[in-house]
Amino acid sequence: MTLHSKQLIKEIYNITHIVETFMIPDLVRHVEHFLEWNICQAKANPQLDAERILSHATVESYNRLEILVPDQDVDADNMYKVQQLHTTGRKGWRGGESRRDSV
User: Fold this and answer.
1) CA–CA separation, 91 vs 71, rounded Å?
2) Under a CB-based contact definition with an 8 Å cutoff, are residues 103 and 65 in contact?
3) What is the pLDDT of residues 28-82, one digit of tens each?
């Protein structure tokens, strides 16, 4: 996977702003859950540590993710092509409607 189209720091500065911009209301809860189970699991209070990390975390936001997917147009094994996943939040992309896909 490759992240592309990094958002400017003046546009995205914390996770709450990502929630508002890309209309992903459960993002904070999901990130806290991920931190609890994957980063803070061995701590005395994983939930509190996850909340603390999230409240002080530096946020980087991207609106495009490139992933390799099997190429169904080719019969050979191990042939892949790049699939681009986009999210635009409230703004459209290339004249289209807005997309708020969770990427």
Assistant:
1) 31
2) yes
3) 899 899 989 998 888 889 889 988 888 887 777 777 778 888 887 777 677 888 8
Q: What pTM was computed for the model?
A: 0.54
Tokens linked to 63:
């609106």
* Of 93, 97, 22, residue with least CA distance to 59: 22
23-56 exposure pattern, b = at least 16 Cβ within 10 A, e = fewer = ebeeebeebbeebbeeebeeeeebeebbbeebee
CA atoms of 88 and 61, how far apart (whole Å): 11
Query: Which stretches of the chain are assigned E, i.e. beta strand?
Result: 2-6, 62-70, 80-86
CA 21, 24, 26: angle at the middle one, nearest 5? 140
Q: How far apart are CA 12 and CA 21, in angstroms?
A: 8
Amino acid, res. 23 = M
Q: Which residues pair with 51 in a beta bridge?
A: none
CA distance 34 to 66: 22
